[in-house]
Amino acid sequence: MTETFRAIRLTKQDKSVACELANLTEADLMEGDVTVSVEYSTVNYKDGLAITGKAPIARVSPLIPGIDFAGTVESSTNAKFKKGDRVILNGYGVGEGHHGGYAQKARLPGEWLVKSPETISAEHAMAIGTAGYTAMLCVMALEKGGVTTNSGDVLVTGAAGGVGSVAIALLSKLGYRVLASTGRAEEAPYLKSLGAAEIIDRKELSEPGRPLGKERWAGVVDAVGSHTLVNAIAQTKYDGVVAACGLAQGMDLPGSVAPFILRGVTLHGIDSVMAPMARREEAWSRLARDLDMNKLDAMTSRAGLKDVLTLAEDVIAGKIRGRVIVDVNA
C-alpha cells in the first residue's frame, strides 16, 4: 500500500484559489535531491496572501503552500546532507513555484537548505520562521550601515507582527533603544515586554507627510511600506539607515529624495527569498546567539495544519500577534 502524508493543496480557479486538506503521496512531490520529514511550518504574511488569493503568490497549480519549514532529512543524494540532519528552509520560491511547508513531507534541491544551528530546535526554528530570519537580516543591514547603540533610537514599524516582534527582541537584547509603531494600542504591554522603550501610534506615520521631518531615529526596521516607510525615512537622523522588508500598507513609495541627498539617509532593501547562502547562514547563526528564546516563546502561539486556512485570513487582517508555529503532524 502506498504511504500517504497530509498536506494543504492549493488549486487555482480562474482569478481565485481553493485550498483543502489532502492526502498525498511522494509521487505528488516535485523534483529535488533531498527529501525532508517536515515537523513544523509557520504562518507568514505571504502565506496569507497565497491561501486567500489576495495576491498572485501561487505560480503553479496545484501547489502546497508554506514558504518555510523545519524538519529532518529523510533521504539525500546531495553531498552536503545526510539522513538525520536537521534543516531549515526559507524562501527560494518554495510555497510559490515549488511545493512548500504545509505538508508532512517535502522534496527540494539541497542548495536551498540551511543546516539548523545546534541550539535551535525545529520548533524554535519555525517560531522564528521567515519573519524572524528577515528581522535578523534587517538588524544586520543596520549594523552594516554603521548604526550602533550610541547612534540613537531605532524605530520598528508593524511592531506587533512577526517581523516587528522579533526585531524588537533582537534589537533590545543587543542594547538598542527601540520605538515600536503599532495600530493596536492594546498591544503596548506585549511590545514593552519584548523590549520596546516607547510606543508610537501608527497614525503618526501612516498618512501623507512632509518631505523632511524632525530627526527622531538613527535606524528603522520597516515591514509596512507606502506612507509609513516614507515618513520613517523623512524622520531618520543624518547618516541613518532604513531597512525595508515589507508592504503591508502598500508597494508604493510616495516620497521625496530629500532625506537621501540632504541627510545622507540609506534605504537598504531586504530580500529574504533569494538571499545568498552565506548571508542566510550568518543570520541563523546570529539568531542562535542574539535572540532571547524566552521572549520568542512569549510571542509564539501554536496551531495544527487544519488551522492554517483560518490563520491565513487573520494574518492578512492584522489580527495575529507575534509568531504562529504550525505543527504539521498535529
Summarize the structure.
The protein has 330 residues and is α/β, with parallel strands linked by helices. 30% of the residues lie in helices and 28% in strands.
Classified in CATH, the superfamily of the largest domain is Medium-chain alcohol dehydrogenases, catalytic domain
How does CATH name the architecture of the largest domain?
Alpha-Beta Complex
Overall number of domains: 2
Low-confidence stretches: none
**Helical content class:** 25-40%
SSE diagram, text form:
Elements: E1 5-13, E2 16-24, E3 34-42, H1 45-52, E4 68-76, E5 86-90, E6 105-108, E7 113-115, H2 122-144, E8 154-156, H3 162-174, E9 178-182, H4 188-194, E10 196-201, H5 203-206, E11 217-222, H6 226-234, E12 236-244, H7 258-262, E13 266-269, H8 277-290, H9 293-298, E14 300-304, H10 308-316, E15 323-327
Parallel strand pairs: 8-9, 8-11, 9-10, 11-12, 12-13, 14-15
Antiparallel strand pairs: 1-2, 3-4, 3-6, 3-15, 4-5, 5-7
Helix pairs in contact: 1-10, 2-3, 2-8
